[in-house]
Amino acid sequence: MLKLIRARLIQLIVVLFVLSIVIFVLMKLAPGDPVASLLRIDEMGATQAQEEALREELGLNDPVYVQYLDWLSNVIQLDFGNSLLKNKPVLEEIMDRLPATLELAIGGMIVMILIAVPVGFISARYPNRLPDHLGRFFSLIGASIPVFWIGLLLIYFIAFKLNLVPTMGRGELKNLLLPSITLGLSLAAIHARLLRSGMLESLSSEYIRAARARGLSERRIYTRYAFRAALIPVLTVFGMSFGSLIAGSVVVETLFSWPGLGSMAVEAIFQRDYPLVQGYLLLMGACIIIVNLVVDLVYGLIDPRIRYGKGETG
């Protein structure tokens, strides 16, 4: 287990280093000039001298590799620089928005679990029967409809037609309802289908037939053995789809005016606040890698047959 953790931490460092290079290069290649956006040259009549002074202050006149090394040395010290437009530390801005995004992510995961587990379990319990057909229909529709379209449908029918919950902003629990359902529905469709397939595959294995031969009840076989074994591929896909959860939160936060990291990133991109965009992308990349590490460690807890010891890989 310790060997796995050490290997994943080394992988984390290498991936983050490569990611930092990619992010920095993409920001340099992005269209537009952050200095022009900051000074609003066309609107406020800023002079060329003011533009050059600000460019020198920000270090934009240095060679690109010098700019990258300066930025990287600061990042190692958890100094992501200052937001160009808000004039506050990038890390502080991210931490101010992080609670809202965590609320939305947790709400989306709760909705996903509440829908995916029963739908996948019941579909596997009654294969090729009405519950299974309904579950597969839900999975097909949920996986086919884009996240923003689900959000628009929920806003139209639940907020405008029925006037049950507000559509924008963060505050009370009811404000979280529609964004969480929007984010969780598309993920639930994928994971329900995967859980069904995993359970049906495990039910056809030798150890399940042996359990039935020993006289174990069908309820115990489904809940203790088949369901538990099916969680392995589900967790794998969840770790891989965590990026989709973050990407989906960008769309959902923008759609529902949710003041989280996603809406912050969209604003920073349109305003060409490159230090804020760079800090956001790097931290999100670190979060995705850490989530996959946690998923690897959980494998051994769910399935005792999986052990990360000498000569084994995770």
From TrEMBL:
One of its GO terms (cellular component) is plasma membrane. The chain crosses the membrane at residues 12-30, 104-122, 134-156, 176-195, 229-252, 280-302. Signal peptide: none annotated. Keywords: Cell membrane, Ion transport, Membrane, Nickel, Nickel transport, Transmembrane, Transmembrane helix, Transport. SUPFAM superfamilies: MetI-like. GO terms for molecular function: nickel cation transmembrane transporter activity. Belongs to the binding-protein-dependent transport system permease family. OppBC subfamily. This is Nickel import system permease protein NikB. It comes from Paenibacillus urinalis.
